[in-house]
Design a protein that fits this description.
heterotrimer; A mainly alpha (about 290); B alpha/beta (about 425); C mainly alpha (about 270); A: mainly alpha; MetI-like fold; about 75% helix; C: about 270 residues; mainly alpha; 2 domains; 12 helices
């Protein structure tokens, strides 16, 4: 009886969130779905699947999907591996640990357009950027980051924004590792590498899962960094799916095609969610 | 529905009731120096119009364009005055999104607006936006380097001369590039330059039947000339250089020549920021003897969206900001060199302005050399010098700009870039129903 | 012997950690440094020692008063966070303590709503906001920010609440505590750190949200992201001014983050680090 009551109470308490999110998802989605079958300037009526066909036949479409996955994959790799290494380093006894932590976490607080502007104008600029100054100091040719390696440049910027987040979570996880366990392993004569593989890494697996989960959500929709730096170019070299949708919506004002692209992005996101999230989701349950 | 109409009616009634006291109009503008200055001079307007208050929204160009286009297309009614360019005006006017400016006041002197500019902002003889500042493009060059190269820049150079001069001036060991040109992708970046340039090569975007022309030899000549010129004599990383990047290069003495907006002249000749301020000469944009020069025409202009409920106040403001008096107001506060250029003939007849701005005559000549209604050697169905005034152009121009930027970066060949541009343009025009 | 090794070890680790930390922090540091340069200095190559002029800050303030944007940022980020917590706490609580068959799926579905590119729904939202008179209103934007961050908030609270041992609740119930008392006296004290850290993270996310905050505002509700947009890429080179504006925009949240980072991490990793 009490359980029954709790159950229905539980549903009642969950309701606002679920209803709000459902409305939030379904209303724009319904509009978007409706727009996606309309000619782009709304007046011209139903056009069937032609917006999908047009979006799909866009020469940038396939590359934009690959770029989306490349950004998500590379940034996850860099931040998780880099985060683990940094966490191991910061876990050592060092002087000024508090300040070091503050310095390391700072990029996470910078809003994406500012981060992109700073990197573009002051760090990676081929004439005035710090990288160019360094290259010239060593007698080399400055690299034109956004012309020659646009996707790499964007991955670097985004990874810089998310590395602190990963580091901090992994560090906390590392610090919660029982020091007795560590000492015991050391006593057993386990080397650093084997200690890391058999003790530390499994311990951190849940923290890594959290990092991957939260970051994937944000990385799938990266676009401000691209807009500010490369505008998706040269060619389509740094166009990802959100940016392509952005281009259709706010540059060409083809609302129909942008909506079709949005629906495709949701489908892609759910595929990623299905595979990646279920894989990591198991980890969360442990 | 009825309820909504009623509510709206009540709302507008209450707005009207308020309007009797003080009306507040919202102005969206771009964050360029001349507009920021206008914002600072708000007090002069409110002193003359105590019943009108001004709310400013200053945004960077791309965000501004997104915001105002979204708002006007959905009739959001967030702005009473919008800063838009010569590209938007004809398109929006045809959609009936803008109010014609017919109440600018008796002493406004519409005839004083430079005809080339006024033409670009009028549809069917009605003015739909008032120019705040206008610009064309021309050649800025280093007199000292030109002399060293043993050459003299004519007032109206040819492309062959530009090439020859660039080759002689280039001295990469000393960090001097013969010529700096835009390479960053965007319809308002590299495509503004390349489209204007292509006009002088006899190329055009579309023929009379809207068939894309990137497969024609004129475009091949244009792009090949541009890529070769830049590879041999341009700066490193040219494919990501826009106006600002080239400005920085020129100001630091790293460019022999720079072909770009006339408005740049006031930057490069300013000794506070430019190391070469006293060595800059100006010439018309180059040609190939075909009757068209490679210069563009642009005017940031103030327009009033059709949905505004404060049209009278908005017109008062537009009239104030684009009047002769405003020019004098700026001159009295910040000197003649800081007056927004390129809008009024009377400014260029003013001896004080001529003295303060040595580039004044060349700017006016450049503006007059552009004709948005007949931009190309061969006939075209569109209006616009460095753009095609159709809604599809923003997207298409940027796509083509990316392809040409990739060609400059050496990632694709000129032929491939042109072929892809032709495909993209054909797809866009088919989709838009221009061609079958 | 052991002592010496450990000092040496500590020295090396300290040096390495400081180098890495300074490298990571460098772009922010350089922005702050550049903001104290004049415009000429800013483009004259690498220089860590500015002349210390505050002319850029004065120019930025004169062009676009900072304070109104700052207040909007505070109001929007804090307001949307409180709103999100009010909606999310009951949901996360019930998910954690009375999980049903669909709880996991509902959670995953909630997270997946965050993956729709915002720009794809801009027009529907803009039309809805227009018809409800919410364009450029703080309330409208607050609801918007609440909605986009709600999935993260629910999920974080859920992972946190789930770690609270159910036995404690059982015991409280045995004692005959009402549900209300259960929440106030048993649950709340244990949940506060998690809620605090969720709140902090959400404030950061809302503060830095740069799509809706620019597209749905004009003058009244515009926060610091719109402030930045009036300084990025103008015609001409104004990197010192841009740096000053950037510094002003990120300083409040940076300082808040520095002071609260321990709190932030504690809740964020509670579920993750057991």
């Amino acid at each position: 009886m009490a359980t029954q009551q709790t159950r229905s109470l539980a549903r009642f308490m969950m309701a606002p969130s679920v209803v709000l999110l459902f409305v939030w998802m379904i209303v724009p989605l319904a509009f978007t779905l409706w727009f996606s079958f309309q000619q782009y300037n709304i007046r011209d009526g139903f056009v069937g699947f032609s917006n999908y066909a047009l979006f799909y036949s866009n020469p940038a479409f396939l590359q934009s999907i690959l770029n989306t996955l490349a950004i998500v994959g590379s940034v996850l790799f860099i931040t998780v591996v880099g985060g683990i290494l940094l966490a191991l380093l910061l876990d050592q006894p060092i002087w000024g640990q508090g300040i070091v932590r503050i310095l390391v976490i700072s990029p996470f607080f910078v809003m994406p357009p500012v981060a992109a502007l700073v990197w573009k104008n002051m760090i990676m600029h081929p004439q005035y950027g710090v990288f160019a100054d360094i290259a010239r100091f060593f007698g080399g040719q400055p690299i034109d980051w956004f012309g020659q390696y646009p996707l790499t440049a964007i991955i670097i910027i985004v990874a810089w924004q998310w590395l602190p987040f990963a580091t901090l979570i992994l560090l906390t996880s590392l610090q919660s590792l029982d020091s007795e366990q560590k000492e015991a392993a050391e006593m057993d004569g386990a080397g650093f590498v084997s200690r890391f593989i058999y003790l530390t890494l499994p311990h951190m697996s849940r923290a890594i899962t959290v990092v991957i989960l939260i970051q994937t959500i944000f990385l799938l929709s990266v676009y401000a960094e691209i807009l500010v730096t490369t505008n998706g170019g040269p060619g389509y070299a740094s166009t990802n799916l959100p940016f392509l949708v952005y281009q259709k919506a706010l540059l060409e004002f083809k609302i129909g095609q942008a909506s079709a692209g949005g629906i495709l992005a949701v489908i892609l996101a759910n595929i990623v969610a299905f595979f990646a999230m279920r894989a990591v989701g198991k980890n969360l349950d442990k | 529905m009825k309820l909504r109409t009623l509510t709206l009616g009540l709302l507008s009634a209450s707005t009207l009731a308020f309007a009797a006291h003080a009306e507040s109009i919202t102005i969206a503008t771009v964050n360029n120096g001349d507009m920021v200055r206008m914002q600072k001079l708000t007090d002069d307007f409110t002193a003359k119009n105590p019943d009108i208050q001004l709310q400013w929204v200053t945004l960077e160009e791309n965000v501004l364009r997104e915001r105002v286009t979204t708002d006007i297309a959905t009739k959001g009614g967030q702005y009473d005055v919008m800063t838009i360019g010569t590209y938007e005006v004809p398109i929006w006017a045809k959609q009936n999104w803008l109010l014609p400016l017919d109440k600018l006041g008796d002493d406004y002197d519409v005839k004083d607006i430079i005809p080339a500019i006024a033409n670009g902002l009028s549809v069917d003889g009605k003015l739909y936006a008032a120019p705040f500042y206008g610009e064309s493009s021309f050649v800025m060059y280093r007199k000292d380097l030109m002399e060293k190269a043993g050459l003299t820049m004519p007032d109206a150079p040819t492309w062959d001369f530009i090439k020859q001069a660039a080759e002689k001036m280039t001295d990469r060991a000393n960090g001097v590039n013969g010529v700096c040109l835009r390479g960053k992708a965007g319809w308002g970046e590299n495509m503004a330059f390349l489209t204007a340039m292509s006009n002088s090569f006899g190329a055009r975007w579309f023929d009379e039947n809207w068939k894309p022309q990137f497969d024609q030899p004129e475009w091949k000549n244009t792009l090949q000339f541009y890529v070769d010129l830049m590879k041999a004599n341009g700066p490193e990383g040219a494919s990501s250089n826009g106006f600002n990047e080239n400005l920085a290069l020129f100001q630091q003495g790293k460019c022999g020549m720079w072909i770009d907006a006339t408005v740049a002249a006031s930057f490069v000749s300013d000794p506070k920021n430019s190391t070469v301020a006293d060595k800059v000469g100006y010439a018309l944009a180059p040609d190939n003897g075909l009757g068209k020069r490679g210069n563009w025409l642009w005017a940031w202009s103030l327009a009033i969206p059709a949905g505004t409920q404060k049209a009278d106040a908005a017109q008062k403001f537009v009239s104030w900001a684009t009047s002769k008096d405003y020019l004098e107001l700026v001159a009295s506060k910040e000197g003649w060199a800081n007056v927004p250029p390129g809008t009024r003939s009377s400014l260029y007849a003013n001896p004080e302005y001529q003295k303060a701005a040595p580039f004044a005559k060349m700017t006016l000549d450049s503006i007059n050399a552009a004709d948005p209604t007949h931009p190309t050697v061969k006939p075209v169905p569109y209006v616009g010098v460095q753009f095609v005034a159709i809604p599809e152009f923003q997207g298409l121009g940027t796509t083509v700009g990316q392809l040409f930027s990739a060609a400059l970066a050496g990632q694709t060949s000129v032929d491939d870039a042109l072929k892809q541009a032709q495909d993209a343009a054909t797809a866009t025009m088919t989709e838009g129903g221009y061609i079958q | 012997m052991a002592r010496a090794v450990s000092t040496q070890h500590k020295t090396i680790a300290t040096a390495a950690a400081w180098i890495v930390a300074l490298l990571i922090f460098f772009p922010i540091l350089y922005t702050i440094i550049t903001s104290f340069k004049s415009e000429q200095e800013a483009i004259q190559g690498f220089n860590l020692f500015p002349s210390g002029t505050t002319e850029s800050y004065i120019a930025v303030e004169a062009q676009n008063g900072y304070f109104k944007f700052f207040l909007n940022s505070v109001f929007l980020s804090v307001g949307s966070t409180i709103l999100a917590l009010l909606v999310a706490i009951p949901a996360a609580w019930s998910m954690a303590f009375s999980p049903g068959k669909w709880t996991k799926d509902i959670l995953m579905w909630m997270l997946s709503t965050k993956m729709m590119p915002a720009v794809a729904v801009l027009f529907p939202i803009y039309l809805i906001f227009r018809d409800t008179g919410l364009l450029d209103s703080r309330i409208g934007l607050m609801i918007m920010l609440m909605l986009i961050n709600l999935p993260i908030v629910v999920w974080m609270l859920y992972t946190y609440f789930r770690e609270i041992p159910g036995e404690i609740l059982e015991a409280a119930r045995m004692d005959g505590a009402s549900l209300w008392k259960e929440i106030v006296y048993v649950l709340a004290p244990m949940a506060v750190p998690g809620i605090a850290s969720t709140m902090l993270l959400n404030i950061i996310l809302a503060w830095n949200e740069a799509f809706w905050t620019i597209r749905l505002t004009t003058t009244e509700a515009a926060p610091l992201t719109a402030f930045i947009s009036s300084f990025s890429s103008p015609q001409g080179l104004f990197w010192a001014k841009l740096s000053a504006a950037s510094t002003l925009a990120i300083a409040p949240i940076l300082i808040m983050g520095w002071f609260s980072q321990k709190q932030l991490v504690r809740g964020l990793t509670f579920g993750a680090v057991k």
